[in-house]
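Hi X.,

You mentioned you wanted examples for the new student's onboarding notes, showing what a folding record looks like when two proteins sit in one file. Here is a clean example. The first protein comes first, with its sequence line followed by its C-alpha cells.
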Amino acid sequence: MTLSDPGSIWPGLVTTARTIRRGEAGYPSRLARVPDAPPEVRVRGELGTPQARVAIVGARLADPYGLELARELARDLARSGVSVVSGGAQGIDAAAHEGALAAGGHTVAVFGCGLDVTYPAGHEELFERIVASGGALVSEWEDGREATRWTFPRRNRIVAGMSDAVVVVRAGKKSGALLTAELARAAGTPLFAVPGDVTHPLSAGPIALLRAGAHLVASAADVLGELGLAGQLEFPAEAMPDLAGPEKAMYAALGGAPRHADELARETGLGAGPALAALLELELSGLCEQRPGHYFLRRP
C-alpha cells in the first residue's frame, strides 16, 4: 500500500547515483555481516571510512525537547569524527542530520524508496546538503520505487545494520524506531535510549528500552565511551554564574536541550510557581531562553 505522501521525483538524481554490490569495495562492512543484507545498495555521495557510525532515530512528530537533543547529540558525535546515520524522515531523523551538518561532520540518510524520489517531499534541500557536505544517501531500491509501508522496515534494517551503535531519542509505543532498536539488539549492536519526562507519550519507547537493558544516554560522551572513543571530544567547562536559591538550582538543572518547566520543577524539588519564577528570572538575566510550550534551555 502506497503511503499518503509518496514523495516527489527528484530530477537529475539518477545520473549521480552508483551501485555497490555486497563483497565489493565500498559496501558498508558491518552491513555485509547482516544475514539479510541487501545484495546491493545504491549510493549518492560518499560513505567514507569513519572510525564509527552511530544511528540516531526516533519519532517523526517529535517535541522541541527531542528535536533539540537529537541535534545536540548528532553535533557532538560528528565533532568527534563519528558518522551520524538516520532515515531522512521528518522529526528526529531530520534533526540528527541537521546536527551533523551544523558540526561540519559526516551523515548518511537511508531511504525507504528509490534515490530519485524524495520522501518526505520537501527534504530535497536537506538531502542535497548531505551530499554536498561529503555525506551520502543510500537505498537498496531501484530508481522510481516509491515509499510504501513495507519498505520502511527494510530501510530500518540497513540503518541498524551499518551502525556501530543505535540511539533512540523519542518514540511512542508503536514507533518504527523501536524496530530499528530491536534489530540492533538482535545483532548485538550497542543500544542507547534517552530518558525523558515519564508522563510524555514519546518517552514510552525509550523507557521500555531502558527497562530491557539499553544504555542510558544523556550526552554524546555516553555513546563515545561505549565505543572506546571517550577521548575524542572535549566538552568545554561551564562557569557557574553567581546565583543563589531557586535560580541556582534551576540553572544547574538546565542544559543545552530544551526541557519542560514541569520536568525541571520535579527535578529541582521546587513547586510549579517557584520554578516558573526562577526560570523567568534566569530568562531576564540572559541565562536561559524559553521555547514554545514552556520549554527552557541554557543560553549559549
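Then the second protein repeats the pattern, sequence line and then C-alpha cells:
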Amino acid sequence: MGINEDTFDDWFNLPNKYNKKLELRAWGAPHWVEKLFSGDLEKRFKEYHDKRKEDFVENNPDVLNMTGEEFEKYLMSILDLKGFSTSGTPRTGDQGADVIASKGGKTYVIQAKRHSKPIGNKAVQEVVAARNYYKGDVGVVVTNNTFTPSAKSLAKRNDVVLISGKEIPLMVNILEG
C-alpha cells in the first residue's frame, strides 16, 4: 500500500488493542512513523517537557526579576488566557489571597509568592484562611521557587494545591485536573 493522505491519518488513529508496529508495517507506513510509535515515545515526551519546565524557571529572567505584584499579574494573565475569570485582591487587607480566579463553577483562591527561598507554612496558613474568607472552593499557593517539606505536609492536610516554579507552565492543567 502506498503513502496517501487517507492512510496517513489512519496511522495515528489505530485502536490501542492492535500492535501498532505490526499494523503500521502492514499499512506501508514509513520507517519514521513506525519509530514514532516505538516504546520510548512516552519517555522522550516526558523528558522533553521536564526539560522545558526546568528551562522555564532557570532561564526565564522575566519571572526571576519580577516584583511580587508583577508576578501576580503574570499568573492572572496565564489564567485569563485559559478562560478563567480573575481579579486581584486589595494590596492591604487581602486576608491572605492575591488572586481570585473562577472557572467552571469553581472559585480558586490563590496566594502568589515570588521569593528567592523555598516557601514555608505561612503561605499555606494564609491561603487556608483566605479560602474560607472568600468562600473559595480551592486554595492554591503558587511560587517561582519550591516548598519546604513542612509546607507540603500542611498543604496536604488542608487540601491546598501547591504549584512550584517548574509547574507554572502546567498551572491550568493542575487546577483543572
